[in-house]
Write a structure and sequence with these properties.
Helix 3 (about 90-100) runs parallel beside helix 7 (about 210-215), helix 3 packs antiparallel against helix 10 (about 270-285) and helix 8 (about 220-235) packs parallel to helix 13. This protein has helices at about 35-50, 65-75, 90-100, 120-130, 145-160, 180-190, 210-215, 220-235, 245-250, 270-285, 310-315, 355-375, 390-410, 415-430; strands spanning about 5, 10-15, 20, 25, 80-85, 110-115, 135-140, 170-175, 190-195, 260-265, 285, 295, 295-305, 320-330, 380-385. The chain is built from 14 helices and 15 strands. The chain has 2 domains: about 5-35 and about 240-340 and about 350-415, Glucose-6-phosphate isomerase like protein, domain 1 (Rossmann fold); about 55-220, Glucose-6-phosphate isomerase like protein, domain 1 (Rossmann fold, 3-Layer(aba) Sandwich).
Length: about 425
């Protein structure tokens, strides 16, 4: 695996709904710095051939698909006030990232409950919170063969069975081929929504897997997709030397860096952290032909809480982390410490009148400045506000950045051979009754 020398000069970029600042950029040894990113991605696609699941590049621009997804959401929402979304990994993480960021938005019309782990305690808690009479169920599995998804769907429908009154409306998202989940849907007359074969699960945000639950909730998937499409156009048309996705990937692969830390300052952004973690981990963890194991280890930290659990390690431990600070300039909510409050102890008078957002922001800036002054590679991502534009741009930026990581590492970032091996062992254990 080649590592890139970090260049001392930083860079600032502007994308729809967000700004990105890099404390340092990487060089492009072995690549034409004047070539556009589209040129490299086209070459990657040609080299990978049938293994290139790269349809994600154009998905946000497919307005006809968005209209079809909106229509499917309207049908699913008819008579339903909430949706139970069942899936694993990339089948559910994208929708949850956006929903969690906007779940306190006043425009939200319907609730979405997420089930992505076959832990019976969690499943029962979720199922007891939904009303079978006003709930729809959507199971998402690209292959239609995900063991956990199939099991959770069957158990959930049994739990929600209302006898003569019938159960909830059910739909599935899977490939349009002969697969177990699709066949089950056909047998029961459930709505079956096709996922594109040219896009892998963790890159499926702008397919029905990611957009349908959001449209059901009442969020603006057209605005989300429009921002992603604009961002994709900007990124692919920009030369590597000035390309934010290319330069961000170089920062994550700077010499001596093993871990990428996403510091989320704002709890509504933590759902994005779950999506980001899978995207980076599954796309970069590989065993090379010579047996060498490589990858970028993604860690998600919660600001400011984790400053009191992780910062000691970050500041005085091994200098092998690159950091990305994610925040929002305009909070949806805020509250303040009252001026003249008698509840403040001596020595804390300076925070009287300060807002909680200002405190959170000071914590972010203080940690960022300390790490940057120590020479750590730092990226600063600031959303203008929590809305569909900023989130669409953010998601697309990281998908392109991940593709750049694959190019720099010389690997296929779109498969997951290790995951497939563990799935086979799990299935064998269950078949053997162990």
């Amino acid at each position: 695996m080649q590592r890139w020398r970090a260049m001392p000069a930083g860079a600032e970029y502007r994308l729809p709904g967000l700004s990105l600042r890099l404390s340092q950029t990487g060089d492009s040894t072995g690549f034409d710095a004047e070539a556009t990113l589209a040129t490299l991605l086209d070459r990657q696609q040609a080299e990978l051939g049938d293994a290139a699941l790269m349809g994600w590049r154009g998905l946000p621009s497919e307005t006809h698909s968005i209209e079809q997804i909106q229509q499917a959401a309207r049908l699913l929402a008819a008579g339903s006030s909430e949706l139970l979304l069942i899936g694993m990994g990339g089948s559910i993480n994208g929708a949850r990232a956006v929903y969690r960021a906007l779940e306190l938005d006043s425009r939200l019309m319907r609730a979405v409950e997420f089930m992505d782990n076959p832990d019976p305690a969690t499943m029962i808690t979720v199922l007891e919170s939904v009303d079978p009479a006003s709930c729809s169920v959507l199971a998402v599995s690209r292959s239609g063969n995900t063991l956990e998804t199939v099991a959770m769907l069957a158990a959930s429908l049994q739990f929600l069975d209302a006898g003569d009154a019938g159960g909830p409306q059910v739909a599935v998202c899977c490939l349009d081929n002969d697969n177990p989940l699709g066949t089950l849907a056909d047998r029961h007359g459930w709505e079956r929504i096709a996922l594109p074969a040219h896009t892998g699960g963790r890159f499926s945000m702008f397919t029905a897997a990611g957009l349908l639950p959001l449209a059901f909730a009442g969020l603006d998937i057209a605005a989300l997709s429009k921002a992603a499409a604009e961002t994709a156009t900007l990124l692919e048309g920009t030369a590597l030397a000035d390309n934010p996705a290319w330069q961000l990937s170089g920062l994550l692969l700077a010499d001596g860096i093993a871990n990428a830390v996403l510091y989320c300052y704002g709890d509504l952004l933590l759902g994005f952290g779950d999506w980001w973690r899978q995207l980076i981990a599954e796309s970069t963890g590989r065993t090379l032909p010579d047996g060498k194991r490589i990858g970028v280890n993604p860690l998600v930290a919660r600001g400011a809480s984790d400053q009191h659990s992780l910062n000691q390690l970050f500041l005085d431990g091994p200098a092998n982390n690159a950091y990305c600070f994610l925040s929002c300039n305009e909070p949806q909510f805020d509250m303040s410490v009252n001026r003249g409050s008698e509840r403040l102890p001596a020595g804390f008078e300076h925070i009287a009148g300060q807002s909680m957002h200002a405190l959170l922001e000071a914590s972010r800036r203080g940690t960022l400045a300390t790490l940057e002054s120590a020479g750590c590679p730092v990226a600063e991502l600031e959303l203008d506000r929590l809305d569909e534009q900023a989130l669409g741009s953010l998601l697309q930026l990281w998908m392109h950045t991940t593709a750049c990581l694959g190019i720099r590492l010389g690997i296929n970032p779109y498969d997951q051979p290790g995951v497939e091996r563990s799935k086979q062992v799990t299935d064998r254990l269950l078949r053997d009754g162990q």
